[in-house]
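Encode chain A's predicted structure.
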Amino acid sequence: MSSGSGNKTGVLGGFKAFLMRGNVIDLAVAVVIGAAFTNIVNSVVKGVINPVVGAFGTKDLEHYASCLKGPCSRNSATGEVTKGVYIQWGSVLSASLTFLITAAVVYFLMLLPMKRWQDRQAARTPAETKPDEPTEIELLAQIRDTLIEQRRGPGSGSDSVPAQR
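Encoded structure for chain A:
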C-alpha cells in the first residue's frame, strides 16, 4: 500500500513540477493574451475591413455565398439557407482576412521589434565569451608531444629532451 501512495505522490509531484516550469506559465499567459488579441482583430475586421469590402458589395462577408445545388433560397431576416445547397465562401474569406491581419500584426508589432532588440543586445555583448579553439599547428604540436611521451614509456623521466632531427 505504501508503494502505491509513494507512486501517487511521485505522479502528483511530477505534475506540480510540470506546472511550475516556466514554459507552461509562459504558454498560459500567451493563450490569455491571444484570446484578448483576437477580440481586437475581430473588431478591426468588422469595423474597417468589412466596410471597405462592403463598398463593392455587401458589408457582411458572411453573406457572400454561391448556390451549388438549386434552386436556392434564404430567409431574408436571418440569412439562413432554407432551400438548396450554398457554398459560403464569404465566411472563409473573412476568416482568411482575420488570419492575415493577425499574422501581420504579430510579425510587425511583436516579432520584428523583438528580433531587432535581440540583435542590438547581441551586438553590445563582447564576442569573446567563447574560448578560442586551438589552431592546427597547436594541435599538431600536442599530438607530437603525446607521441613522444608514449614512446619514452612510463619509467623514463620527463626531464630529458628528445633529440630533434
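The chain is about 65% helix and 10% strand.
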